[in-house]
Specification:
alpha/beta, single chain
Length: 238
């Protein structure tokens, strides 16, 4: 453990625990079982992309799925500082350490030269190999991926998708599509997509939101009028 920590040079960098916690669900939220079912059905494809502008309930939906998922879920809420490979390497190493008890022999196969990009790739390969030998599935959720601007991180995630082991599932939450070859992933049936058109509230969901979450007493006509004006946009309803 000391050897590869010294090689990676990340011993002193802290983990912000709130960034790796599944977000808490608000009381009286609207549960959306048909969308949770879509996520579940998309997991065998390996990559679930939840992409829509702000205010469509992306994080809430995936957090609701994660709270009842039948497989372990690793969550990372990204921010602008996570464009630094040193920081990303620290969280990736934390994932490997905590999830795979036999990871040290795998990591010992790699002797990075101190270059953070090489370390990043080595840790990715270690994750791929560990998941290839795993007996059960693991989901990794990356929230707010639109804040990632570092092309090396984009390339690293593409590398992961190209060599996706059968037991690893990636769920990416973003306000805009990542710079990946999505058309190729679609053609190969390697991506499940949930977009704004999928995330808008139905009439029933809007009525439940306005009644239970917002504590308003409205008739069906009023609910319908608000729904038409907002086009089902959740923040618009709020």
């Amino acid at each position: 453990s000391f050897l590869w920590r010294r090689m990676i040079k990340i011993e002193g960098l802290p983990i912000i625990r709130t960034k790796i916690m599944i977000p808490a669900l608000r009381r009286r939220m609207v549960h959306r079982p048909h969308l949770i079912e879509q996520i579940e059905k998309g997991l065998p494809q390996g990559f679930v992309l939840v992409s829509a502008p702000p205010g469509f309930g992306k994080t809430t939906l995936v957090a609701d799925w994660a709270s009842q998922a039948s497989i372990p879920v690793i969550w990372l809420s990204l921010d602008s500082q996570d464009n630094d490979l040193t920081v990303i390497n620290r969280y990736l190493l934390n994932l490997l350490e905590n999830r795979f008890t036999s990871i040290q022999p795998l990591l010992a196969e790699f002797i990075p030269d101190g270059n953070e990009e090489h370390v990043f790739r080595s840790l990715e390969v270690a994750l791929i190999n560990a998941c290839s030998e795993a007996e059960s599935d693991l989901a990794v959720v990356l929230d707010d991926y639109h804040l990632v601007q570092n092309p090396q991180i984009h390339e690293g995630l593409q590398f992961l998708l190209e060599h996706m082991p059968p037991h690893l599932k990636i769920i990416l939450i973003t306000r805009k599509d990542p710079p990946f070859p999505l058309s190729r992933l679609r053609a190969n049936n390697q991506v499940c997509e949930l977009r704004a058109a999928d995330l808008i509230f139905t009439h029933k969901e809007a009525a439940e939101f306005l009644s239970e979450t917002m504590q308003l007493h409205l008739n069906e006509s009023q609910v319908g009028q608000i729904l038409r004006r907002t086009e089902g946009w959740i923040t618009g309803l709020q």
